[in-house]
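Entry 14. Ran structure prediction on the chain below.
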Amino acid sequence: MSATHQWLVSALSRAATLVPIVIGLTEAVGLPRSSQIGKAMLLLAWILPSVTGLGVLTGAAPNPVMVDFLTGAGQVQVGYVDWPLYWFPYTVLFSIGLYFLATRFFRFEFAELPDGSDYIAPPS
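Output, structure tokens:
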């Protein structure tokens, strides 16, 4: 969801949209918000929209400001299509890094979500 919305809305509004979804997911599977996996999911729902916003020029407010500074300093012009070429690899690396930080700092109560296979449709 965050990857598709970064073209249209700000990082704060993406995070504000994701947080209730994560709360609903944790409550749907019967987890308290104070569980370790609930905390990790909420934290990532709040941080990842900002991280993925780096990948698109209009994904975060500082991005066009940086382009303006680069242009004013006489540096190379960075266009809308050029921006992901420079920043998308960092977005992927930061996202993977956040995944590993969340899974290492939050020791989950279980290795697999209880009754998680009940929520996934079997392949047809």
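Residues 2-105 form one domain. Will compare against last week's run tomorrow.
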